[in-house]
Design brief:
mainly alpha
């Protein structure tokens, strides 16, 4: 007598999954959810293509923005220091290029630092109001490195002072001193000390110079700060004991003269 081996139908397999091996369960699941699986595969492929396209577009924008940034930097650095009109044209060209980066490629790394360089170029043209606006825009939009942010606050403070806004300038400098990872605190302390000295506030200037030496002894400004302290610090008064001894000696000399 021969026996016929019967194959389990999909319905039987679905109703009794414990009768199937692991591979058979996988195939059964795929068969029952064929449409959903194919839909998921198509969606995943489309998402992958979209991400690759976005990455390529972003890469292209970064390259174009970098090219504009290179042109702007050349215009800024190649300006003539002897020809004022030519230098002004170069600075304006740099400003125009940096503004193009911000307008055309706002999501690029070049755009993140563009306002800082615009501020520098405007400050070179003695447009302090424009420079202040550019530095403030950088600060408002930045999530940039603390080192660059410290430089921006320093430049902002200098522009405020040049614009006759002393309190705002001091406040901008103070922001640098309060930031934990800035690299230009020694220079800001030196600038504050010079400002105090210029205003004949020698006590405050001395405090700034001494703070510079205490906190940044290896600073390139340390030697100048040491010299300014020697000049500004009042001479030490003579001890009281020596004064009393001098007076006593003078009294004895007087007595001897009378005798």
């Amino acid at each position: 007598m021969t026996y016929k081996i019967r194959h389990l139908s999909k319905q039987v397999g679905a109703e009794n999954p414990q009768l199937l091996s692991r591979s058979e369960r996988v195939w059964l699941f795929a068969e029952l959810h064929r449409r959903a699986i194919w839909t998921g595969i198509v969606v995943a492929v489309m998402v992958g293509i979209l991400l690759v396209a976005l990455f390529w577009v972003q890469h292209q924008q970064e390259q174009e923005a970098l090219a504009l940034e290179h042109q702007a930097a050349q215009a800024y650095l190649d300006r003539s220091l002897d020809d004022g009109d030519a230098a002004k044209e170069k600075l304006q060209e740099a400003v125009t290029l940096y503004r193009r980066i911000i307008e055309e490629f706002p999501r690029t790394a070049s755009a993140q630092s563009a306002w800082y360089f615009i501020g520098n170029a405007l400050a070179e043209q003695h447009d302090q109001a424009g420079a202040i606006d550019a530095y403030q825009r950088f600060i408002d939009q930045a999530g940039n490195s603390p080192a660059l942010l410290g430089l921006v606050y320093q430049r902002l403070g200098s522009s405020y002072l040049a614009n006759g806004e002393r309190d705002k300038g001091i406040n901008a400098y103070t922001q640098v001193l309060q930031m934990p990872h800035t690299l230009n605190k020694d220079q800001v302390l030196f600038e504050l000390a010079k400002l105090e000295e210029h205003e004949t506030r020698n006590t405050e200037a001395l405090a700034r110079y001494k703070q510079l030496l205490d906190e940044h002894p290896n600073s390139p400004y340390a030697s100048e700060a040491t010299l300014r302290i020697k000049i500004l610090e009042p001479p030490a008064s003579e001890p009281e004991t020596s004064k009393e001894g001098t007076e006593q000696a003078e009294g004895e000399e007087g007595k001897e003269t009378e005798e």
